Automatic annotation (TrEMBL):
Natural source organism: Thiolapillus brandeum
Keyword entries, A-Z: Coiled coil, Signal
Domain Multidrug resistance protein MdtA-like barrel-sandwich hybrid, chain residue ranges per copy: 58-221
GO molecular function terms listed in the Swiss-Prot or TrEMBL record: efflux transmembrane transporter activity
Keyword Signal: yes
SUPFAM superfamilies tied to this protein: HlyD-like secretion proteins
Family membership: Belongs to the membrane fusion protein (MFP) (TC 8.A.1) family.
Gene3D superfamilies: 2.40.30.170, 2.40.420.20, 2.40.50.100, Helix hairpin bin
Entry keyword annotation includes Protein biosynthesis: no
Gene Ontology CC entries for this record: efflux pump complex
Name of the featured protein: Efflux RND transporter periplasmic adaptor subunit
Lineage: Bacteria, Pseudomonadati, Pseudomonadota, Gammaproteobacteria, Chromatiales
Source domain of life: Bacteria
Length: 383
């Protein structure tokens, strides 16, 4: 009888211990969540590069002449057609200078006409043959005795005098023509400055940023407006040189772009690869075309760039469920179960998000590691 009681007591204690162990295990499962063994993906590895959404065409309208701003067409967001006046600088002084230049042109043209008349007069009625003025008897004496005597004695060459008079008349004609050309050149220069006083829309677009107001005084080179065509947008990235080797213009990357203001990944197309790298950052600027209506200029975008380097091409990247990734600030982390069964916080570098809900990990994990699929917010490293 005593042995039976002892056996019953031992059996009861064993059952209590077994139930307690199951409760602890259930509590640990509820606390830490399921554990996922990290696997390797056979997909091509990618690297996430962040960039900015920019307009397809964008210009900055700067002042070309000094002056006071007297007109601005609108505010940020207003749309205008090509050729519309956007900004105008006061041109009163230029208009006055143009009027003075036209007056100089008229004077030069009158001088040219007068020089032409004087040349014709010298050609048909030379001054060298004209009778000098004076009283009748002395004038008659000069014509009958003095001039013939001068010609006979060689003291006066009337042919040379006539040639000199013709040359002087020709010189006055050339000077008048030069004055006309100078006046016209001044008018052209003033007309160019008058055109520079007005900034027209170079294409259909909208005002992105307005840097001046009516009444502001500007100097040449001061930015006044930023004008852009936002019908089509692009994403501008600075990509490491080793990743650019896997890109070609007009190449389409499927479901590779993620935007802050758009929930789904979208396709992008390589629009332009700059021919020169940045000397300080050692990156190459690349622009990608995006579909219409996806984002707005200035927004943040992230594009998955294929990594075709030898190390990435020959290896395979680990993948984890997207629910296993948590963020500490902007840094992605996961909780890994170490050899002692404790949770260990580990910083990772995210890669591409796959269609099956998995995420490739570029660094921080290796195949075979055990991560918690859905860690609770209260989970701490070492727990």
């Amino acid at each position: 009888m005593i042995n039976i009681r002892i056996r019953r007591t031992l059996l009861t204690a064993f059952l209590v211990a077994l139930i307690g162990t199951g409760a602890v295990q259930a509590q640990q499962k509820n606390t830490f969540g399921d554990v996922f063994v990290v696997q390797a993906s056979d997909r091509q590895p990618t690297v996430a590069i962040g960039g900015t959404v920019v307009p397809y065409k964008q210009v900055t309208l700067a002042a070309q002449i000094p002056g006071r701003v007297k007109y601005i067409a609108g505010i940020e967001g207003d749309a205008f057609k090509e050729g519309t006046l956007l900004v105008a600088i006061d041109d009163s002084e230029l208009l006055a200078k143009r009027s003075a230049a036209y007056a100089q042109l008229s004077s030069a043209e009158a001088e040219l006409r007068n020089a032409g008349v004087q040349y014709s007069r010298e050609l048909w009625s030379p001054k060298s043959k004209a009778a000098p003025g004076g009283m009748a008897i002395p004038n008659l004496f000069d014509q009958m005795f003095t001039r013939p005597a001068e010609d006979f004695m060689g003291e006066r060459d009337r042919g040379a005098e006539r040639s000199a008079d013709l040359y002087a008349s020709t010189t006055r004609i050339e000077q008048a023509r030069s004055a006309i050309m100078r006046a016209r050149s001044e008018i052209q220069a003033i007309e160019a400055k008058l055109r520079d006083a007005k900034s027209l829309a170079p294409f259909d677009g909208v005002i992105m940023d307005k840097m001046v107001e009516v009444g502001d005084t500007v100097q040449p080179g001061v930015p006044m407006l930023r004008f852009a065509d936002i019908t089509w947008l692009q994403v501008e990235l600075d990509i490491p040189a080793r990743l650019v080797t896997g890109l070609q213009e007009m190449m389409v990357l499927k479901k590779a772009a993620v935007f802050d203001d758009y929930s789904e990944p979208v396709d992008v197309r390589v629009a332009q690869i700059y021919p020169m790298a940045d000397a300080q950052r050692h990156t190459i600027k690349v622009k990608f075309d995006i579909p219409q209506g996806i984002s707005q200029p200035g927004m943040y975008a992230k594009i998955m760039i294929p990594d075709t380097s030898h190390a990435a091409a020959t290896g395979s990247l680990p993948v984890v469920p997207a629910s296993a990734i948590r963020y500490r600030g902007s840094l992605p982390v996961v909780y890994v179960q170490n050899e002692k069964g404790k949770a260990e916080l580990r910083l990772i570098r995210e890669g591409r998000r796959l269609d099956n809900g998995m995420v490739t990990v570029l660094s921080g994990l290796a195949p075979g590691d055990k991560v918690y699929v859905n860690p609770r917010p209260s989970m701490l490293s070492g727990s």
